[in-house]
Amino acid sequence: MAGRDVLEFGCGGAQWSISLAKRGARCTGLDNSQRQLDHARATVSAAKVNLRLVHGAAEAPPFADACFDIVFWITVRWDNAVVESFNATIKTELIHRTKWNTREEARAAIYKYIEIWYNAKRLHSTLGYQSRLRRKSSWIMSASRDPYLSTSFPVSNADYCYCVR
């Protein structure tokens, strides 16, 4: 991480950026909430690290293309509006239409729905009729200097973290 330019997308309190800055990364935190950024400034000050905090929307990030080595975000499961919308969708499109014989069959079908359909292919009107994966990867690819996108991986208390190597 040392010497890498890192963008934390939706940084909230900037805890992840602080951790990376302590490891030598040059971090920038982006968040659309001024209140979150105010909290992040206090957290950054207490941690005695140097990182830039920027107010801006994910749909139009205020950065030039190819200005970061690594771009990442953590989507916390406790975002109720997003979770409630997703729950309604998966129930309508999968759960109430299917009967499984075992818990393992249900788990496999739900995983397939989320990873293969919902994130990768299903078009979302709020994303300009793009899939979540296409929207995120197109922004990451334009914001990163490195063209190789790693796979998503589970993170404790989070849905997924997507990173650029």
Note down, in words, how this protein is organized.
This protein is of the alpha/beta class and 165 residues long. It has helices spanning 15-21, 34-47, 80-93, 103-118, 132-143, and strands at 5-9, 26-31, 52-55, 70-72, 74-76, 153-155, 158-161. β1 (5-9), α1 (15-21) and β2 form a beta-alpha-beta unit.
Question: Brief description of this entry?
Answer:
It contains five helices and seven strands.
Residue-averaged pLDDT: 78
What does the radius of gyration come to?
18 Å
Tell how many strands the DSSP assignment holds. 7
Strand content: 15-25%
Structural class: alpha/beta
Offer a few descriptive terms:
disordered C terminus, single chain, alpha/beta, 4-stranded parallel sheet, 165 residues, 3-stranded antiparallel sheet
